[in-house]
Amino acid sequence: GAGVSQSPRYKVAKRGQDVALRCDPISGHVSLFWYQQALGQGPEFLTYFQNEAQLDKSGLPSDRFFAERPEGSVSTLKIQRTQQEDSAVYLCASSLPTSGGAGELFFGEGSRLTVL
Amino acid sequence: DAKTTQPNSMESNEEEPVHLPCNHSTISGTDYIHWYRQLPSQGPEYVIHGLTSNVNNRMASLAIAEDRKSSTLILHRATLRDAAVYYCILRTPTGANSKLTFGKGITLSVRP
Fold first, then answer.
1. Which residue in the set B87, B97, B104 is minimally distant from A50, CB to CB?
2. pLDDT below 50 — which residues of chain B?
3. Which of A54, A93, A103, A107 lies deepest, with the highest CB count within 10 Å?
4. What SS3 class is residue B10?
5. Are A64 and A81 in contact (CB under 8 A)?
6. How many CA atoms does the CB half-sphere of A61 hold within 13 Å?
């Protein structure tokens, strides 16, 4: 389909393992966002890219979290030395750049990470 | 970002209209009011947004108070598929793009 695609949909990791989550945005969307959603909570902002530039990483909870988008398209969220509190759904969204706060974000279905 | 306040939950009957309220008393003059919804096991989905005037689209209507301190999302005829968490979000323009800051939202249940 033409939507935002995320993989894997489900990931189980042992505490201490590294994980990588992939996001394929809608073609032509220069803006890309990562969110973390804990059970029963709303999504929490992690980081934002415009093309390959990471313009806002204020939401990354620790230096174990790292995101990249080297060619301005596909993005990877990497979590090193996973902890149980990292268990959550990780959502990716993309959009066209729209000035002024209008415009729509398109979300993927998310990657559910469970850390044992 | 300015904050929004929504009830935790609401119930409605199928095929009846639903009015979902949102308070945003600290809204600034340039903030857009956005609504997204999230169905179970899916990512959030855009519903509607507005600035000052009421807005209609194929999914819903957005009624914005004259002082902009509150708004109401209106689903004209609820279906079982409308059962979801609905988020009212203020989006502050900051250059080319700006993030959405989600709260807990309101959980809408639809009775058959």
1. B97
2. none
3. A93
4. strand
5. yes
6. 16
3-state helix, strand, coil in chain A (%, to 5): 5, 45, 45
Which residues from chain B sit within 8 angstroms of residue A4, using beta carbons?
43
pLDDT at B99: 83
Residue-level pLDDT at B30: 87
Q: Report d(CA A25, CA A42) in Å as an integer.
A: 21
Contacts of A50 in chain B (CB under 8 A): 96-97
d(CA A84, CA A102): 36
Average pLDDT (A40-48) is 94
| pLDDT surpasses 80 at A98 | no
Amino acid identity, residue A20? A
Q: Tokens standing for B21?
A: 């309220």
Alpha carbon of A6: minimum distance to chain B alpha carbons (Å) = 11
Closest alpha carbon within chain B to A100: B93
Write down the pLDDT at residue A115: 98
Q: What is the predicted pLDDT for the residue at B97?
A: 59
By 3-state DSSP, what share of chain B in percent is helix, strand and coil, each rounded to 5? Answer: 5, 45, 50
Mean pLDDT of A9-26: 98
Q: How many CA atoms lie within 13 A of A7 on its CB side?
A: 3
- Name the token pair of B27: 């809204």
